[in-house]
Amino acid sequence: MRVLILTLSLLLALPALAVQPDEVLSDPALEARAREISKILRCPVCQGETIDESNAPISRDLRLYLRERLVAGDSDAEAVQAVTDRFGEYVLFEPPARGVNWLLYLAGPVMAVLALLLGWRFVRSRNLPEEGPARLSDEEKARLDRIMRD
Amino acid sequence: MIAEIGHFALILAFAVALFQMIVPMIGAARGWGGWIDSARPAALAQFGLIGISFAALTMAFVTSDFSVALVYENSHTAKPMLYKISGVWGNHEGSMLLWVLILSLFGAAAASFDANLPPKLRARVLSVQAAIGAAFLAFILFTSNPFARMASPPFNGRDLNPLLQDPGLAFHPPFLYLGYVGLSMAFSFAVAALIEGRVDAAWARWVRPWTLAAWVFLTIGIALGSWWAYYELGWGGFWFWDPVENASFMPWLIAAALLHSAIVVEKREVLKSWTILLAIMAFGFSLIGTFIVRSGIITSVHSFASDPERGVFILAILAFFVGGALLLFSVRAASMQARGAFAPVSREGALVLNNILLAVSAFVVFIGTVWPLVAEMAWDKKLSVGAPFFEKAFTPFMVALAIILPLGAILPWKRGRLKRVLYPLRGALVFAAAVMALVFAVSTGHSALAVIGAGLGAWLVGGAVADLWLRTGNSGLARLRRLPRADWGKAVAHAGLGVTFIGISLLMAWQVEDIRVAQVGQTFTVAGYDITLEAVEERPGPNYDSIVATMRVGRDGRQVALLHPEKRVYPVQAMPTTEAAIQNGLFRDLYLVIGDEQQAGGWAVRSYIKPFASWIWLGSALMALGGCISLSDRRYRVAAGARQSRAAAQPAE
Fold first, then answer.
1. Are the CB atoms for B79 and B165 separated by under 8 Å?
2. Could you tell me how many CB contacts below 8 A there are between chain A and chain B?
3. What is the ipTM of this complex?
4. What is the pLDDT of residue B303?
5. What confidence score (pLDDT) does residue B307 get?
6. Rounded (10°) CA dihedral B559, B560, B564, B567
7. How far is the first Cα of chain A from the last one, in angstroms, to the nearest whole number?
8. Closest CA to B468 of B447, B452, B483
9. Contact A107/B364, CB-based, under 8 Å?
């Protein structure tokens, strides 16, 4: 289905790899934080890439901006907020769990509970009668299993 | 001339499909033998005609006939032959032609094999298959004609997107289509059974091989796509939770559920209506995938000839087939009486849980995929749902699945005891615990993912071994060879899932990355490996120019690898691609990428050490292999038909 004509090609037309050596911060702890954050931020002009992978100039700008904020002492949340303020919720690959997005987050668990309840009801309805003439002792059953397997 | 023959054959195929859709269905309803029998030759003729059409288009690509607009837009005389051929399906029109070719291939296969299929059921199956074929042939003929000519043919073409000029991607789409379209057989069988109002063990036995084959193809197709992303995109990502990836992953999950529930129908004649519903949904998700890719309604890196008109057409096809099948289902489902009874703790119970987990996880993927669309339409909110969401929302289901899988795999049918199945699994438990301890000891820092993932993987592999061991009974290893192939297939596929679990979790937790500027001749150290950038030179390729680096990787003074990462520029499409140099190893991949020349001298270089990366695809290969082994089981080949002798004596397995 996906002979991938990557629209990404458009963006690759800018000859550069994602994170460039000159962007990397000298403080490894800070850089690690920057990398983690840039993996959850979406490149605003790309088709579904993070700014960490993207080669678009705006992604580079965002990566640099993000690092500036971190160097200036922002917490992770503050830095993400700073980017979101500029570009909107669209840049968050993990939509914030508030407002209507609760539906998104609850859909899976609710469905799971529902399915388990329905499944349990079905299983109960098919349950074997506890007492019956065909009940074998465990020993007999094990022997029968063995015979059936051979 | 050849293109016109292809076009004409396609129109004839459409006519044959219409015939095959209507006549056998009426024949089956009225009991007219001749009309019923017409389904087989029609299916073969349809396949032959679409085959001619596809051959004609391939011919146009091979001979670079630029008077055909599609060839002009997607090919170039300088392109290597392999990519001239793969260029046939590297575009919207050609890939749709491949789609219907495979659809008719499955129809022809159903017409030729399955000698035991009752003629009426066969006629109905082929009729439904032809209906799908007719819809897509109409789609091609009316909206996406691959044979359109150019008034004034240019001298050369515009070339295929360079990212697609790759062996992994050349074969990725055909396998994926074989999978998607293979699920149409399960759908056709489901609809035919609904029309007949009859689902029994024999039906499940007929439907299972098709589902299994489709699932194997999907597994291979998805694995090829992810492997391609791994080595081609230049940083070794292998799964992005992109809408189009999800579009192939949802049918895979549902098909996995379906092939397990079909076992329950086959062995125990319960879960009938649920299995029918899964068969409808599996193909429904395939169609949704087609819709997502072709309509461009959801932004994706794989956007593909997006065109609203085509999107509406596919939406109509989707609504007609899935809606119609569900309507039929709602009318007829009540007549599917379950026969067998079973206790909650039993193989049946475990498979019900398997189905719940797989179906709900597919639902989670679906919700995440369409949520941006829903949010925009309903609340005018532009938002994104990506990897961080899916990793949180989807993973718990896979963890639960992995925990119960080895238990369910050895639980007896009808009634089991948890204590009794834990005993034979004690070895697997110890093994998993040992692996977890080892991983915990080796890794530093955040490693919950590594510990849990590797532990679950080991539990799955150990469970598969225990399963085989248990099946040998008291008669020792000699029996192992005489086990039914289905048992082997099951164990191999389950172990494969475990191997993939280990690969994904250890790669994600332990990967080491290094980005730097390196001067030619400079040596730097990454995670114990000494990497030397020895030389960088220009080298022309057949239809691209390339910058090739020579990099030596050593460890403890010994040379480990000499690698040549490349950066290519394809002048026709004015587009660069990175060709990472990878040394695959059983326990780690070395992954080197050369970047741009820096103004101050030196080159941007990225080096990755990727532990256990190849296990992801090794596990996928094992899953596909397990499916193939299971497919070759004797019971699908010998007297698969005996509908009358319904489950009188339950075989032990």
1. yes
2. 219
3. 0.81
4. 52
5. 65
6. -120
7. 46
8. B483
9. yes
